[in-house]
Every structure is written in structure tokens, then in C-alpha cells.
Specification:
7 helices, alpha+beta, 60s Ribosomal Protein L30, Chain: A, 5 strands, 52% helix
């Protein structure tokens, strides 16, 4: 899927470049072409990042960690924090926080009882992963939205990821190095309870 999207994007850019050469208003079109090229580069980079995250999430869902030793090391960093588990996938540490610990059903406001776990997680991030780039991703179960008021599980997942991001930024992490994404119901785990989660992904 990703390769097909990248191929189509590249083809579109090639057609645009060819068209620019035959148009008399060359300077204007070259400027427009450069702007579109930059947008394409950003889109391709975002697609590649999303595909890597999807593959990593599916690997965890299938219980296939890439390396037992490094996974153990990552797990030990966050050991003992209620509702939190960690797995290393390549050069990334995926810290999963149980959604039911963080939020009431269909809600995006953090529970007061979740903040103890978040504070401990934050302490590890500051001590052992200071300055590292972080992505916060929201995941939901596969039940369709009925009464919460959100358009879809993707919207719910994003707002939950946003709530976690805002909390850790408010506690001192640099928001400029923390991005957001939502996978909604796309990467379910073995149970609905496990599927409802927010992952803090550290690029180590």
C-alpha cells in the first residue's frame, strides 16, 4: 500500500515537471513546482513514518519482539509503573499505557488516578531518554462510536493521544520534539481492553 502511494506520488511529480518545461510561464511554474515538490517530500516522509509505526504495532500485536535482550532492557526501564509496559522495536522504545487507566469510556480527559503512572513514566523519560524525539499514538478497540460524540475511533484516538502529550509537555518535556498520531481501531490486540491504549514512542 505504501509503495503504491509513493509510486503514484512520484509519477504525479514527474508529470508536473514535464508540463513545466513546455509552458511559457516557466519561472512561475518552476516556483510552484518547487513548492509542490517540498509538499510531496513531506507527505512521503509522513507515509514512511506511519508505515513503520504500523508494522511495529502489528509486530507487538503478534507478540514478535525484534530482540529479546533489548526488549528486556526497555521493559526494565518502565518496570513497576501501573498500567505501563515497554518494548524495543529497532531503535525505538514503544511504551504502552492502558487506555482504561487513562480515560473513562468514550472520554478524553485524563483520570486523576492515571497521573501517578504518567508522572513515573515522565521521570524515566527525563532521566534516561532526555532530548529524544517522541511520538504519541492513540489506539482504540474495534467497537464503532455510538454515544461519545466523536466522528470515528480515529478522532477519539487522536484526542486521547493529545491529552497525554499535553500532560507531559505541561510537566516539562519539550513540545517541539513530540508529535501525534492516531491508529484508531487499525491495530487491535488480543482483547478490547488491551487494544484501548496510548503509546509513547521514543526514538532512541
Amino acid at each position: 500500500m505504501l509503495n503504491r502511494m509513493l509510486a503514484l506520488s512520484t509519477l504525479a511529480l514527474a508529470i508536473l515537471v514535464t508540463g513545466c518545461k513546455s509552458n511559457p510561464d516557466t519561472a512561475s511554474l518552476q516556483s510552484e513546482n518547487e513548492s509542490l515538490r517540498q509538499q510531496l517530500d513531506k507527505s512521503n516522509a509522513a507515509l514512511e513514518t506511519a508505515e513503520r509505526e504500523r508494522q511495529a504495532a502489528e509486530a507487538r500485536a503478534n507478540d514478535k519482539p525484534a530482540n529479546t535482550a533489548t526488549t528486556s532492557a526497555a521493559s526494565s526501564d518502565f518496570a513497576g509503573i501501573e498500567g505501563v509496559s515497554a518494548t524495543r522495536v529497532g531503535n525505538e522504545v514503544h511504551v504502552s499505557i492502558e487506555g482504561d487507566l487513562l480515560f473513562d469510556s468514550g472520554r478524553t480527559s485524563l483520570k486523576d488516578t492515571s497521573k501517578k503512572s504518567l508522572d513515573k513514566l515522565l521521570g524515566v523519560l527525563k532521566q534516561k531518554y532526555a532530548g529524544k524525539y517522541i511520538r504519541v499514538a492513540g489506539f482504540t478497540d474495534t467497537d464503532p462510536i455510538k454515544r461519545s460524540g466523536f466522528k470515528s475511533n480515529y478522532h477519539l484516538g487522536f484526542d486521547r493521544a493529545y491529552a497525554v502529550r499535553e500532560y507531559i509537555v505541561g510537566k516539562g518535556l519539550d513540545g517541539k520534539i513530540i508529535s501525534l498520531s492516531s491508529f484508531g481501531p487499525d491495530v487491535p490486540l488480543k482483547t478490547k481492553t488491551q487494544s484501548r491504549r496510548v503509546e509513547v514512542i521514543v526514538v532512541d
